[in-house]
Amino acid sequence: MRIAFLFNHDQIHQVAHSLPIALALEKRGFVGEIIVATTNSRLAAEVRRLGQGLIGTRIAHVKLELSAAASVGSRFMSALIPARKLLVYGDNLAFFRSLDVLVVAEKTSLCLKKIYGLQRLKIIHTRHGAGDRAIGFNRASAGFDHVLCSGPKIMERLVSDAGVPQENISIVGYPKFDIIQPSASLLRMQPRRPVVLYNPHPSPHLSSWYRHGRAVLDFFVDNDDYQLIFAPHVMLFERRYVVSIDRLRIDSPGRVAQKYLRSPNIHIDLGSHASTDMSYTQAADIYLGDVSSQVYEFLYQPRPCLFLNSHQRAWQGDPNFEHWRAGPVIEGPDDLAQGLRDAATSHATHYKATQEAMRERSFDLSAVPSSMRAADAIQRFLRQSQEDPQAMRSIA
Predict the structure, then answer these.
(1) Selection from 315, 308, 296 nearest residue 153 by Cα
(2) Which position among 102, 104, 265, 326 has the lowest Cβ density within 10 Å, counted as fewest Cβ atoms?
(3) How do strand 60-63 and strand 227-230 relate by DSSP bridges?
(4) What's CA 152's distance to the chain center, in Å?
């Protein structure tokens, strides 16, 4: 039995969502070969950093490469689309054919079944994050042989929106919580001033950055009674242009001006380890954002939230904006001063109980670490698949 955990992205933000499961599977005494596969040097370094000394020793590490022709093509296309991420499958079919199981945090790997015909390969989806965006519950989720999710909210939408049979889902908690150790303090923050985390999403049709982001930064330049951590989703500034795949739109994030970098009350991080290891969601007093699933990691410890409705959406009652129930929603930067005050003063009376309920529905946590629960769910699924190859269902 050969099981591989694939990390195939430009950035490192998905690693902590599924790598802990590989580590737990090894510690559970999995009978077979466990492989971690990476597709660039950044990912290779991250899996080794978080791998507890197991990567390259008790867990094999395979670095997947592109052919010379595909490398040239990916360089031409990479400004607009994740070309390398897409081309790596066809260039490494021998590796994927050698596997019995592939565990992934994203959905592009389904091309192995749909395009390349690897129907025998069982693909398990770990997902990444506990957010509410519609793309997380599209019909592609039903293409996996099994799905691991963090809580009942996710399971219910996978069943109702994505058409995933409930027996093909295991609720396992949030493996990222098992492995993350926030970075040592990287902040130039001063005590006794509230710390606001501004965490915009990259998708142009949903993000607050393109329309309002610089005005948000201007507000904090002019209001040093607050300290700001500007730590957007790590993909916002990864490419010159950002393309939305769930609703076709393209935009450029531009650059961050020097006046923001020089401001003594603003800490800017466009993609370090601290942007993915919950350092900032733990350090902040107030969360300011739009649709990033990081708000749920912030709500692990309920605190004031404020949301920017930069696209004037009628969001009430929309499950894709469920997280906006965690705090006040404002229409633009002109409302920031009052919005921040309202978020702080109304938290205990209006939002804390709602946030606690949201946390419980998003994260089904127990005394057993989530990564161990996920490893056990995978082994149950594999046993059932061997007993009934046609079913491909878990007994969880």
Answers:
(1) 296
(2) 265
(3) unpaired
(4) 18
Question: Per-residue b/e over 161-200, b at no fewer than 16 CB within 10 Å?
Answer: bbebeeebbbbbbbbbbbbbeebeebbebeeeebbbbbbb
- Tell me which residue of 9, 4, 8, 13 sits closest to 276, measured CA to CA: 13
Give the sign of the dihedral formed by CA 161, CA 162, CA 164, CA 170.
Answer: negative
Residue-wise burial string across 136-145, b where 16 or more C-beta atoms lie within 10 A, e elsewhere: bbeeebebbb
Question: If you search the block for the tokens 């963090």, which residue do you land on?
Answer: 150
How high does pLDDT run on average in the chain? 92
**Confidence (pTM):** 0.93
CB 25 within 8 A of CB 34: yes
Give the separation between CA 208 and CA 386, rounded to whole angstroms.
Answer: 48
168 HSE (CA, 13 A, CB side)? 20
Residues in a beta bridge with 195: 227
Q: Do residues 256 and 168 make contact, with C-beta atoms less than 8 angstroms apart? A: no
In sequence order, what DSSP letters do the residues of 95-130 get, joined into one string?
Answer: HHHT-SEEEESSSGGGHHHHTT--TTSEEEE--S--
**pLDDT tens, position by position, 35-49:** 999 999 999 999 999
CA atoms within 13 A on the CB side of 344: 13
**Could you give the CA distance from residue 167 to residue 142 in angstroms, rounded to a whole number?**
12
What three-state secondary structure class fits 167? Answer: helix
For 37, what's the count of Cα atoms within 13 Å in the CB-facing half-sphere?
23
| Residue 127 vs residue 246, higher pLDDT | 127
Phi, psi (rounded to 5 degrees) for 21: -70, -40
Residues 346, 328 contacting (CB under 8 angstroms) = yes
- The rounded percent of the chain whose pLDDT value lies above 90 is 84
How many Å apart are CA 363 and CA 351, to the nearest integer?
18
User: In sequence order, what E strands does the chain have?
Assistant: 2-7, 33-38, 60-63, 101-104, 122-125, 146-149, 169-171, 195-199, 227-230, 242-244, 249-251, 266-268, 286-289, 305-308, 329-330
CA distance 328 to 342: 7
Q: CA–CA separation, 81 vs 241, rounded Å? A: 9
CA distance 127 to 279: 21
